[in-house]
Sequence to fold (382 residues):
Amino acid sequence: MAAARLARAAPTAAGAALHAAGGRLPLPGGGGHHLLGHSQGGMYPAGFVYIFMGLYYATGRGTDIRTAQHIFAVLYLATLLLVFLIYHQTCKVPPFVFFFMCCASYRVHSIFVLRLFNDPVAMALLFLSINLLLARRWGWGCCCFSLAVSVKMNVLLFAPGLLFLLLMQFGFRGALPKLGICAVLQVLLGLPFLLENPIGYLSRSFDLGRQFLFRWTVNWRFLPEALFLHRAFHLALLAAHLALLFLFAFCRWHRTGESILSLLKDPSKRKVPPQPLTPNQIISTLFTSNFIGICFSRSLHYQFYVWYFHTLPYLLWATPARWLTHLLRLLVLGLIELSWNTYPSTSCSSAALHICHAVILLQLWLGPQPFPRSIQHRKKAH
Fold:
């Protein structure tokens, strides 16, 4: 699998080289090769192309798989370091949980070192972005966030949380330059492809309507295939996703007592001046935003496990409801791991995964507030 993945990078590398030399770059929608990407003929954004083209040449045109595995092993260790730096600033998760994060997931080790997917690359850049946000380097954090999106589109699941944090911290006008960084970087990275075939690049790289194969789904195996593929089912999931995001934004994240439209104002002009964001508020918002998206995904494939695997300890331990004991949290982690290691997925494994997701969502809703009511608002209440 790893060998085939790197070997299929040949059209990508050759296409980029042709473009640099002034030749025609083959793109989806036209003749010739499509860029390396989805198993159904799609493609990934430009950042992926550059990274895997580099891997292709660094591994003897995709023949030295051992070197590629060593590179991904280093990436795995770097990802763990970035995750530990994030958790170190929260002081919420007991140390024994990190044993499970490092040693207990065969599936995650396989995704990184055996399969050489681009998902780990995107998530490593995402965790780097979060570390920069925690260090109050908002511009650089947005830059790394955009780099992560350029590797794989799933990082956009964090975008609603990031947008909320930017508005809360800077207001609408202050957030625009940060959002501009994200947009400009996407344009610069995709410029060679945008100049050649903008419609083909945008429609395939950021294909929100992509159909997934039922045989690979991890989360919806208990449904009939016709329902899984039905457009109405996809729209219902999208509606539920957006509705839950709005509920969390209105009821869990926005706690000043003002209208949520106050986030559009300059912070100095709000009735309740915002307090500096704490690490737990930043992490909770981003991880919850991503988790909600995963719960309502049209399909989860096995490599998608890394989209949220490293966030699960925080989601379970940071703001736990009282009824969620340590033993129950470990049981939830174990069942999620078992569901992702059941191949092919079954109705039982998919149902168990959804039950675990529902437990986490429920405790995120019922647990202690990551955003307490503002001090000024509490004083007015007295």
Q: What stands out?
A: The radius of gyration is 21 Å. The mean pLDDT is 84. Residues 180 and 360 are 34 Å apart (CA to CA).
